[in-house]
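We now fix the convention by which a protein and its fold are recorded. The integers have meaning only within a learned vocabulary of local backbone shapes. A record is reproduced here so that you can trace the correspondence yourselves:
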Amino acid sequence: MMMRLNKYIAHHSSYSRREADKVIQDGYVRVNGEIENNPATQVDEKEVVVYVSGKQVAPRDKYTVIVYNKPKGELVTKNDPRERKTIYDTLEKKYKHFIPVGRLDYATEGVLLLTDASKVATALMNSGLERIYKVKIKGEVTPEMEAAMLNGLELADATAGGHSHSDITSMTFAPFLGYKVQKSEHNYSVLKIAIAEGQNREIRRFFAHFGTEVADLKRVSFAEIELNNLPTGKVRFLTRSEYSALFTFLKADEKEQREIGKTKKDTRRK
């Protein structure tokens, strides 16, 4: 897989993306024996040989995945220009190099997976695995909302519910994998919803389209991985059964990616 050099270093070492930029620009990085000063240089993750300050940086076969019960009020990023709190301010230093599997926005809490292997993070982020959320909205659940949850929704203007500085203006919402209305009253409603993707502020944008604000949002599971009474702001490792399910998924995903790659090669030859 091709990726930027700074991303490669950040994924396979304890360097943050910003720290990777600096060591590259300062001349401490060799790519296939040659000094490389451009963080944006594209490298093949499977073929490239990278050294930083004389130490090789390379993908590992073994990997670790942790579950973090993210609280509200933390950003899922290494550094914030506005110096707001990030998940890495709470996580122990030994997890500094772990990569988050997707993001939960600042006001969202719950299950966040992190891993020390970029291939695991990429496979999980790009998967159609079920993500279940508990959502509290202001107002009632309307028939129009339920129809959109069942059938999907395409919005040319999906700016409502997004950040004011976001470049995303339109969005297509696939039909929800499932939903359950647990409470629907005039003042507020509570739902559990299951979706198979994680677009930017997707759930907030969905309900904002119907003029409804999301008051609380919590991810309660990712695939078969749940919090299991994990306190807010704490970490746990995957259980044996969770690792087994993950291993099965990764093997199937690897096979699928090989078949896609083979199909592309065959198409180019024609």
Summary: The longest helix spans residues 240-269. The chain is about 25% helix and 30% strand. The CA atoms of residues 229 and 254 lie 32 Å apart. Residues 65-226 form a domain with the Pseudouridine synthase fold (CATH 3.30.2350.10).
